[in-house]
Amino acid sequence: AEAYEAYRKKKDDLGEEFADVIIYLLGLSEILGIDLEHELLHKIEKNKHREYQKIDGVTVRTKEYEESV
Questions:
Q1: InterPro entries attached here (predicted)?
Q2: Both ends of the chain: CA-CA distance in Å?
C-alpha cells in the first residue's frame, strides 16, 4: 500500500518502498523455508511458455503453460 501511495503521489522514495517489500519477502521466505531463488527461476521459466495477447491495450494471458511431470 505504501509503494502504491508513493507512486500515486510521484514521491522520490518509490524505490525505497520496493526495497522494503523485497526485504520483507526475503525474511518471510527464510522463516518459511522457501528457496526463493529456485522458485523465482522456476517461475521465470514457466512464464516463458505462456502465451499472451494484447486486447484493448491490455496484455492478457491466453494460454496456460502445462508442465510435464
A1: DCTPP
A2: 38
Residue 69 lies in a domain: no
Q: Looking at the whole model, is its pTM more than 0.70?
A: no
Helix (H), strand (E), coil (C) string for the chain = CHHHHHHHCCCCCHHHHHHHHHHHHHHHHHHHCCCHHHHHHHHHHHHHCCEEEEECCEEEEEECCCCCC
Task: Provide the residue range defining the domain that includes 30.
Answer: 2-63
Write the pLDDT tens digit of every residue in 15-31: 888 899 999 999 999 99
